[in-house]
Design goal:
By secondary structure, the chain is an alpha+beta fold. It contains eleven helices and 13 strands. It has a five-stranded antiparallel beta sheet with strand order 5-6-7-8-10, sandwiched between helices. Helix 1 runs antiparallel to helix 2, helix 6 packs across helix 8 and helix 6 crosses helix 9.
């Protein structure tokens, strides 16, 4: 989980601290945040699942204070009444997210959406996600973001599992702004898949990346676990090939930012500071033990990723995603 776009309320309070007036604004914001922690929707019905909401979400007033909100799992439109939902399902033209399919592996499919081109869908997505995210402050200004929707595909359609958002232009090299696996699909390995997808996109862009800070407590745990998994994999390969990789080599290979590598190595007690620089201290038996006992995680497989960086698309380099997208549409008819 994370914050889509801009600073968290903690950061904003820090920025407001330059004057008494600013402190008053920070206090008002904190009061608002405290008030909105109260859930305003008890649960949602989405596809075949009924899911309890966790947090407040700023849905329009007429849709709040009700026992259950009905959400179309394809277009994410929301309704108050089951009769309205039944009518909508019979008429809804979507059986998958709008946008371009960029990944297909068996029944797993990922779509890329431009927040500006698919504004309504992305706004509905942010409202829905806020029901399950504590620290998320942006709901309507989706234009500066790309959204990557992960789905499970069957004969009925592509069912949304989770998503991540990413700034179109990040001065801080953030490759992920907000991440969520919906509760009904949690503990199925999708969180690590989504994280790994964000790094595969960074590799295609020939960049290193990092999630937007600050991370939530759950986000820290998820990322630290992923970074550890990838670093141990590198050290295992390194031992077999009798090579010594620098931290920058590891960063280039994994697309993980140097700072994140260092913090992970420090947590593993695998780094030393020697003669003014960080030196990786690898204990091969510990690496072998980790590799032997680790639980395999679901990662994005680069061979199934049909995505071209936007900077290259602007140069006129064409991709083949539109063909894949058409074929998925045909398979759902």
């Amino acid at each position: 989980s994370g914050v889509t776009g801009g600073a968290s309320s903690v950061d904003q309070q820090h920025n407001f601290s330059s004057s008494s007036n600013d402190r008053s604004l920070a206090a008002l914001e904190h009061e608002h945040e405290t008030m909105t922690r109260v859930k305003n929707i008890t649960k949602i019905e989405m596809g075949k699942y009924e899911v309890e909401a966790w947090y407040f979400s700023p849905y329009p007033a007429e849709y709040t204070g009700i026992e259950k909100l009905f959400v179309c799992e394809y277009c994410l439109k929301y309704m108050r009444l089951p009769s309205t939902m039944r009518r909508h399902v019979s008429e809804c033209q979507l059986h998958r997210p709008p946008g371009q399919e960029i990944y297909r592996e068996k029944n797993l499919s990922v779509f890329e959406l431009d927040g500006k081109e698919h504004r309504m869908y992305c706004q509905n997505l942010c409202l829905l996600a806020k029901l399950f995210l504590d620290h998320k402050t942006l709901y309507y200004d989706v234009d500066p973001f790309y959204f990557y929707i992960v789905t499970e595909v069957d004969s009925q359609g592509a069912h949304i599992v989770g998503y991540f958002s990413k700034e179109k232009h990040s001065a801080d090299d953030y490759n992920l702004a907000c991440i969520l696996t919906f509760p009904q699909y949690q503990k199925c390995g999708y969180g690590k898949f989504i994280i790994s997808l964000s790094y595969e996109l960074s590799k295609r862009e020939k960049k290193v990346g990092s999630p937007e800070k600050p991370l939530s407590d759950l986000g820290k745990i998820s990322y630290r676990s992923y970074w550890t998994y990838m670093l141990m994999d590198v050290f295992s390969k390194q031992a077999k090939e009798c090579k010594n990789w620098s931290i920058r080599d590891i960063s280039s290979y994994t697309a993980i930012k140097v700072e994140d590598i260092i913090s992970t190595l420090q947590s593993l007690d695998m780094i030393r500071y020697w003669k003014g620089q960080h030196v990786v201290y690898v204990r091969n038996p510990s690496v072998e033990e980790y590799i032997k006992n680790r639980k395999r995680i679901r990662l994005c497989d680069n061979q199934y990723l049909s995505w071209i960086p936007h900077s290259e698309r602007k140069k006129g380099i064409a991709g083949n995603s539109s063909e894949d997208h058409t074929s998925l549409d045909a398979s759902l008819k």
